[in-house]
Amino acid sequence: CRAWYVRVREAVVSTQSTGGEIICDVAEADKADVDLAVAAARSAFEIGSPWRTMDASQRGRLIYKLADAIERDIDYISALETIDNGKPFSDSRNIDVPLVINCLRYYAGWADKIHGKVIPADGSTLVYTRHEPVGVVGGIIPWNFPLLMFAWKIAPMLACGNTAVMKCAEQTPLTALYVAKLAKEVGFPDGVINVLSGFGHTAGGAMSHHMDIDKIGFTGSTEVGKIIQQASGQSNLKRVTLELGGKSPNIVFDDCDLEQAVGASHMGLFFNVGQCCCAGSRLYVQEGIYERFVGEMVKQAQARVLGDPFDPRTNHGAQIDATQLNKIIGLVDSGVKQGASLQCGGGQYGDKGFYMEPTVFADVKDDMDISTQEIFGPVMQISSFKTAEEVIERANNTNYGLAAGVFTKNVDKMYQVSSALKAGHVWGNTYNVLVTQSPFGGYKESGFGRDLGEYALSSYTEVKCVTMAVPQKNS
Q1: What does pTM read for this prediction?
Q2: Phi, psi at residue 55, to the nearest 5°?
Q3: Using CA atoms, how far apart are residues 204 and 214, in angstroms rounded to an integer?
Q4: Which of 202, 212, 156 is nearest to 38 (CA)?
Q5: Which backbone phi and psi does 218 adopt, to 5 degrees?
Q6: Pick from 294, 298, 446, 284: which is nearest to 359 by CA?
Q7: Please, where are the H alpha helices in 254-337?
Q8: Is 277 labeled as catalytic in the residue annotation?
Q9: Tens of pLDDT along the chain (475 residues)?
């Protein structure tokens, strides 16, 4: 049993998205490696093991120690994240890794506060519930926020007493592997945390079909989420939670604070170069301010600074790889062909790396490909609308339901629209504000289950009811 397990066989090549250079070779995990990691996790979860007999408060202290070790090495980890993912160092250092630390500390505090209750049942019985760990839990992590998504999954897993088998994205394995090393350093028992680097169709597929994994938590595309759900039904009916794709509507009424709406909507799409599942990519602007809003949005897009991610002036990094860049360019080309008005951008930036120009489309129709497909890149699509009733219907006309935004100074309108939107997270007069204490997850084909907050804990526990006969029950 090891806190961190990878067996060298074939290499996953990790490349820099900013220049395309090879960073290093990383061992590729296959089914045999998954089996070994699951066996280690299962052994660590056995009744009587150090992990199962550990006080819940001590579990919390270990999670706190892991957060402290990450904070100690924050500059190194942030640099590693930027090298591997391509996002600006300022984002890694000031946003991603601090949120990782916050997430771990939040769930460390929950470790000894997860409990059942005594139920005043009829008859001469003592009835109580226990919230027990699910068991061996698999986490399959995307490449857009590599370490942050790792933390979103593993922190509640560990707080609830589970053991973990984590597969990081093949494009971005480096920070998760480093944190696995830190977990060993701070004293997690062998086998509790297992980290694999490998491809989705091999390592991820083996995890999804594995008969000894009790739950899978996945963040990624809707297409792959459906495959994982099917694999659960074809194997042991393991529990599944899915945080999937989105095509989130962002609605701007003409009574909004225009400056606030422009700034927040800009970040709602262009943050992390559009590689956010909750990006406000369908932007609906009321007719009275439409032309002015489009003009301001173009100015902000054109002001973004692309380049060296370690340059403090850079606020727009590279896309993850050539495949993603080419997908984005293909959808941009379809937008032009289908009649949307390209206001700025539209092509690759520079001749080195996978940079995409910040792109803004206006006069977008709801049936265009750029309005229906998740682009996952820095491409904003702006449409106009007349009434609240009209825009609610259009906003909900999608298979997705992850997030939405509403900008208005009218409280009644804010309540009316936010209540009517079919989305798991609705922002009002802001966008992309995600905090550890509040739940995040989607409706419809954006998945089910919730990450973050107290709500996430229910995904990592089983409720056991114990009913005992007693000679006499007294109130």
Answers
A1: 0.95
A2: -60, 145
A3: 15
A4: 212
A5: -125, 135
A6: 298
A7: 258-270, 290-302, 322-337
A8: yes
A9: 344 444 444 555 555 666 777 888 888 999 999 999 999 999 999 999 999 999 999 999 999 999 999 999 999 999 999 999 999 999 999 999 999 999 999 999 999 999 999 999 999 999 999 999 999 999 999 999 999 999 999 999 999 999 999 999 999 999 999 999 999 999 999 999 999 999 999 999 999 999 999 999 999 999 999 999 999 999 999 999 999 999 999 999 999 999 999 999 999 999 999 999 999 999 999 999 999 999 999 999 999 999 999 999 999 999 999 999 999 999 999 999 999 999 999 999 998 889 999 999 999 999 999 999 999 999 999 999 999 999 999 999 999 999 999 999 999 999 999 999 999 999 999 999 999 999 999 999 999 999 999 999 999 999 999 999 999 988 8
Q: How far apart are CA 201 and CA 270, in angstroms?
A: 30
β-strand 359-362 against 379-385: which pairing, if any?
Answer: parallel
Which residues, 6+ apart, have CB-to-CB distance to 119 below 8 Å? 127, 128, 129, 465
Contact 462, 137 (CB under 8 A): no
Tokens encoding 441: 């997850």
259 is catalytic: no
Question: Which one is catalytic: 1, 160, 256, 277?
Answer: 277
Which one of 28, 170, 243, 296 is the catalytic residue?
Answer: 243
Structure tokens at 137: 């839990």
Kindly state the tokens that stand for 310: 């370690």
3-state secondary structure of 420: helix
Q: What would the DSSP string read from start to end of 332-367?
A: HHHHHHTT-EEEE--SB-SSSS--B--EEEES--TT
381: left (phi over 0), alpha (psi -120 to 50) or beta: beta
Q: Which residues contact 2 (CB under 8 A, 6 or more apart)?
A: 40, 184, 190, 191, 194
